[in-house]
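Dear colleagues,

For the upcoming journal club I promised to circulate an example of a predicted protein-ligand complex. I picked one with magnesium ion because it came up in last month's discussion. The inputs are reproduced below in full, followed by the predicted structure.
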Amino acid sequence: MLNIGLDFHDTISYAPDFFINLIRVWKENNLGNIYIVTGTPPSKKHEVLADLEKIGLSEEDFKEILLGFEYEKDKMDLRHFKKMAKHKLKLLKKHNINIYFDDNPYYVQKMKDEGILTFQTMMSKDYLDMFEKADPFFTCNLQKEQFDYLDKLDNKKMCKKDDCKEIILGKPL
Ligand SMILES: [Mg+2]
């Protein structure tokens, strides 16, 4: 069974058409179960259901909606994501979910080395800019810095062999 776990915020919500079709094809072909795996706490499940309804999905479209844990948003910091990564991993293992989609770098980093086929939803610059100021711990802000290392890369650091160094020497990127 190819059981799929889908994050909701900035994953299904970022590309609803894609995920609705994925869900449909998966179910029609009996390929496996589909779960929502969200960090939303159990007390706010109704919000997820309302958001699903807006894009034409309902609880019946999934095997189960797996929720996060209760937390206080005002006191939230980066430790929250590390804790949630462990929580989500536990849920994936418990439900034998071997394919996972999420936008959050903390979560995809955790899952990819655990034998779970992991896909990260990558949001456009425009989308990230739009939400940047809304909430500093809104998870899409984490993705904004994900590629900053590319600016610091240089050929000299990457090249291990001498002949490679000769080729790139003096050639700026
Ligand atoms: Mg998300």
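Two points we might discuss: Residues 79-94 form the longest helix (16 residues). The first strand starts at residue 4 and ends at 6.

See you all on Thursday,
B. R.
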